[in-house]
Design brief:
The complex is a heterodimer.
Chain A (H helix, E strand, L loop, with lengths): L9 E7 L7 E7 L3 H12 L7 E6 L11 H9 L19
Chain B lengths: L5 H11 L12 H20 L1 H5 L8 H26 L5 H10 L16 H21 L5 H29 L3 H20 L11 H6 L7 H18 L10 E3 L4 E3 L5 H11 L3 H14 L1 H27 L1
The chains are: A alpha+beta, B mainly alpha.
């Protein structure tokens, strides 16, 4: 029997490993709703005390930059070396700055 | 430089520079197809791999052993999910993969088509089967496809417990009564050869290997991984006083590796072709679980739809009031 179910939506899972750290993407899963997505995320991604907080976000809600546009998108930051502290020559005698 | 080759050339240079390929990157069709086949096969192996061990959950010899086995089988389900998710980033769907497993189109590791006859098999599977899987998976942590690599890193972290608990079972049985030791030896006898077959055919018989190595999907050949596993495992067997069932096995001073006997590839290909002791039983169990779970999936979807329509109505009513 072929079971073409209406596939549940995909959710992206983010886990905060401890207070003070940002939530980090850990993977994805299918679930019918956000509540089930949270419960599944708990079972799938935090079986060994990996986290104290979970976010689930519908994958469809994420807008991502395209890798093909990587160069034009990030170019403006590459040609502004003066944004980096090492751009400036400060004499050693001045000490740590 | 020929324009027609430029995308493939750039891709090759990209992976050779040890860059990770991400889902939205351009990749050759063959690379995508190879990955979908390999990752879904890997996922199916995790899921089908739950069956031989589930066979012993209700008969575990102690509560401790039962809890450990439950946790291990739950891990395998989790590993299957990480891998299905990684495969889905390549454009295939979960339903498609599950259908391919059930129809027999997709393969899974042939090792799971062997039966688990005694409790010692839980030891042998953890020690040998998971040990062999770890050798392969440690290598795959460095695979060129980002989502696959990340899934492997998670899996490797968890898999180490699997091998250690298996070795502990074997160690306890080997130190036990003569009957218990014989049971451990019998499990080793039955699982040794299928375990070293898990690495797949020899390099000269494995046509896809060279391309996979070139694309940095695989980082070591089947034979290299197999040798590594044997070199590591033989001293472990000696330590617990069990004998590896291979009369040709001996240390080779010159190569610094163990020489081993001829692998029965006829058996390997026969099991892959569907003629192993449990092929039909495994697939039937998967199909049954899928069919009998259908109402749960439907109920969850119906509940989600009802909640969504209720919360969509609620704000409108508030405004009306």
């Amino acid at each position: 029997m072929s079971t073409t179910t209406h596939q549940w939506p995909l959710w992206e899972v983010f886990v905060r490993s401890k207070n003070g750290l940002a939530h980090k993407h850990v993977g994805s899963l299918h679930a019918p709703d956000s509540e089930m997505a949270l419960k599944n995320a708990r079972d799938v991604y935090t079986r060994r005390s990996e986290g104290i907080s979970i976010w689930v976000v519908p994958s469809a809600a994420i807008t991502a930059s395209s890798p093909d546009e990587k160069d034009p998108l990030f170019a403006p930051s590459d040609d502004k070396v003066y944004r980096h502290p090492t751009f400036y020559d400060i004499p050693d005698e001045v000490g740590h700055m | 430089m020929g324009e027609t080759h430029s995308l493939e050339d750039r891709f090759q240079a990209f992976v050779e520079a040890e860059n990770k390929v991400e889902p939205k990157h351009w990749m050759p069709d063959g690379y995508r197809k190879t990955l979908v086949r390999q990752i879904s096969q890997h996922a199916h192996s995790e899921i089908v791999g739950m069956l031989p061990e589930a066979n012993w959950i209700t008969r575990a010899p102690s509560l401790r052993a039962k809890l450990i086995l439950l946790a291990k089988v739950q891990d395998e389900a989790g590993h299957g999910l990480y891998l299905y998710s990684a495969a889905e980033t390549l454009g295939t769907s979960r339903d498609q993969m599950i259908d391919d497993l059930h129809s027999g189109k997709a393969k899974y590791s042939s090792i799971f088509n062997y039966p688990t006859l005694t409790w010692a098999d839980m030891g042998a599977i953890g020690w040998l089967v998971d040990g062999a899987a770890i050798a392969n998976q440690v290598m795959l942590c460095r695979t060129s496809y980002g989502p696959y690599s990340r899934a492997m890193v998670r899996i490797c972290k968890e898999e180490s417990f699997h091998q250690r608990q298996g070795f502990e079972i074997m160690m306890h049985l080997a130190k036990g009564t003569p009957e218990q030791k014989a049971m451990a030896q019998d499990a080793l006898n039955r699982w040794w050869w299928p375990s070293i077959m898990m690495f797949g055919p020899s390099d000269d018989q494995s046509p896809n290997s060279a391309q996979s190595m070139k694309w940095r999907i695989k980082r070591k050949s089947n034979d290299e991984l197999r040798q590594e596993f044997i070199d590591k495992t033989v001293p472990q067997a000696e330590f617990i006083g069990l004998t590896i069932p291979d009369p040709d096995l001996r240390w080779n001073e010159e190569t610094g590796h163990y020489d081993f006997g001829t692998i029965n590839w006829t058996e390997f290909f026969d099991v892959i072709a569907g003629n192993g002791p449990c092929n039909a039983e495994r697939l039937a169990a998967r199909q049954k679980a899928h069919d009998e779970g259908a109402w749960v999936r439907e109920a969850a979807a119906a509940y989600a739809a009802k909640q969504a329509s209720r919360s969509a109505r609620r704000p409108a009513q508030t405004h009306a009031a």
